[in-house]
Amino acid sequence: MRLSEMNLPRFPLLSEKETEELLVRAKAGDKEARERLINCNLKLVFSLVQRFEKRNYELEDLFQIGTIGLIKAIDKFDLSYQVRFSTYAVPMILGEIRRFLRDDSTVKVSRSLKETAFKVRRAHEELAKKLGREPTLSEIAGATELSREEIVAALEAVQSPGSIHDTVYQDDGDPIYVLDQLASEAGEEPEWLDKIALKDVLRQLPEKHRRVIVLRFFQDKTQAEVAERLGLSQVQISRIERQALKKIRYLMQGDDSSGAN
Predict the structure, then answer these.
(1) CB half-sphere exposure, 16, CA atoms < 13 A
(2) Residue 119 lies inside a defined structural domain of this protein
């Protein structure tokens, strides 16, 4: 795909001196200078986007993501870095695109919703910079001429789905995952437990390992609380928990080659 095929306006390339002057003005709050920096560097974004041409993504979508990286580079660049702006901007643009590719889910979202989400994100960045704080939903709605419902729908559509293995807390011990917070009701085991026959597997664990698993995952106790309950150290509980989970995985796969002592 060529630049002309995306119907992008053509802007002249800037000299290093022109770029520096515009950066100084943009840092001082000159919106026109900031906009000119963005427009005159769109060709750079497009050239980087072409590296991902074989990734089965629409280049227009990746171009929009890359433009977000460009905007971040403009806002975060410091002339004291003593490097060319393009040298600083390239990894920022590529990083934004790669982060999108890494986090993009298998849930397909329409292009109109993606474009709305991009418009909202850009307005959010502009307002946050102008106001010096997080903008409200009403302020974003006013800047984008979108309804609050349209903004919420677009942002929810492009959110990556969460995982039960996401970390929700990390202290000196092992991390606590979303899975750890799935508490059972009225002391009963959750429905998915019966479905995957985990109850039978738990019966095959040594008593100490079974007690740790029940306290940790079904009674929502922290490692420190379990350690106090069983009269052991948190390090010991952490080790027992890892051994028990390893044993469960082997048993669920029909392979009892892993011993839990």
Answers:
(1) 8
(2) yes
Q: Let me know: does 66 contact 48? Beta carbons within 8 Å.
A: yes
Residue found by looking up tokens 């059972």 in the block: 184
175 in the same domain as 132:
no
Residue 191 counted as domain residue: yes
Residue 258 lies in a domain: no
Answer yes or no: is 261 within a domain.
no
Neighbours of 164 (CB within 10 A): 10
Say which DSSP state 56 is in. Answer: S
| Residues 55 and 94: beta-carbon distance below 8 Å | no
18 with 99, same domain: the answer is yes
Structure token digits, residue 149:
């419902």
Q: Are 87 and 94 in contact (CB under 8 A)?
A: no
Same domain, 194 and 248: yes
- Does the pTM surpass 0.70? The reply is no
3-state DSSP assignment of residue 177: strand
Sequence-ordered alpha helix ranges (H) in the chain: 16-27, 31-40, 42-49, 59-76, 85-103, 111-131, 137-144, 148-157, 191-195, 198-203, 207-213, 223-230, 234-252
* pLDDT tens profile 200-217: 677 788 888 888 888 887
Based on the domain organization, do 71 and 112 belong to the same domain? no
- Domain span holding position 125: 107-161
Which residues make Cβ contacts (< 8 Å) with residue 160, sequence separation at least 6? 103, 104, 105
Q: Which of 104, 127, 152 is the last residue of a domain?
A: 104
Residue type, 40: C
Q: What is the torsional sign of CA 218, 221, 226, 230? A: negative
Report, as ranges of residue numbers, the positions in the chain whose pLDDT lies below 50: 1, 3-4, 106, 164-165, 168-172, 179, 181-196, 255-257
